[in-house]
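Researcher: Please predict.
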Amino acid sequence: MKELFHERRVLLLALIAGLPGSTIGLILLWYGPYSSKTCWTLTILIVTVWLGFAASTRQRVAFPLQTLSNLLAAMREGDYSIRGRGADSPDALGDVIREVNALGQTLREQRLGAVEATTLLRKVVEEIDFAVFTFDGTQHLLVVNRAGERLLGLPAERMLGRTAAELNLAGCLEGEAARTLEVSFPGGTGRWGMRRSTFREGGLQHQLLVLSDLSRALREEERQAWQRLIRVLGHELNNSLAPIQSVAESMETLLGRLPVPAEWPSDASADMKSGFGVIRARSEALGRFMSAYARLARLPQPQPAPVDVARWIARTVSLEQRLSVTVVPGPRVIISADGDQLDQLLINLLRNATDAALETGGGVRVGWSKNGESIDVWVEDDGPGLSNTTNLFVPFFTTKPGGSGIGLVLSRQIAEAHGGSLLLMNRKDNHGCRARLRLPIEPQ
């Protein structure tokens, strides 16, 4: 026999409960001194009342259960805003409704807390300076933050779903889970600290990969050391150069006024003047040399303002008069940066590129392109290329006669102060060098 539903069982029990009274009433009615019309009328009334009370009993039992079912279904679907009525009733049903309402409120607060915590975690992951990647069991990329986009030089929508091998990260998912890498990425070259761990989501194993730029931290320590050294050298040299230069000028002037002793050779006076002139000139040159290096220790913090990239490049290119620089137009982009510092940065790059191009009679090209949330500005020359890329950004190092060795160091310092990066590399398609400046569109 098929099992009856709960509502039907309640209805059947209600009918059975009213059956004895209704049966006795009908027997007394039909065997009593009443007319046939009266008997039928009262019979219909008794049966109707009996069935009505049974149906009402069924409804009174089923309706609260349906209400509770709707409340629980809404919670299962994630809707915790629905509340049941009758919670103020002092009976058992009121207790049940109150507890269900309290459960809904608790789940709502817990979900709100989980959403806020997840939002905070995502914001932290987006803003940290470490590149974060998440891969599934088949090594397909699921999550990447902004630092990861900058590192690989691609927007997230072009990376998600691609394999680690396609992103040149397959080697990071193998071997030791924590190690130091010496590798080049589109967004930077140098030493990287790698951390890899596993976690489960939806019962499936995933891999979390974190890459941190160790070279930038080392460069910052190196820059601070150079700044301290420059301050000390500048102070000591300036204290010595000022009196040397003053004495040399005085002696040179005095030598021109006094008569030359008879025992001096005929050319001694000219030699003395020439010697004092050399001392004075070299003192002035050394003073300018130290003043140039002092700029590294006094570079101010950027003062961001809107900068139109096209106008900035056109304005800076017009300052180079030795060679006609070709500008390759890019998209219209407005970035937030310190225009004066960017002018100095691009002037240094153009000067180096022009110097190299003049050696071979080649040309210089400048262009830019948008790369996700960053802008790439490149300067390309047809010069002889770079023979030593190791010491390019080391203060005091230069390959040009009469160079001070601060142009590239200052340029990279400006780029990193804006949250960007500066890379120099030999061209692969031809002889020459290519400098790539990457800057965020919004300040960091």
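Model: The first helix runs from residue 6 to 30.
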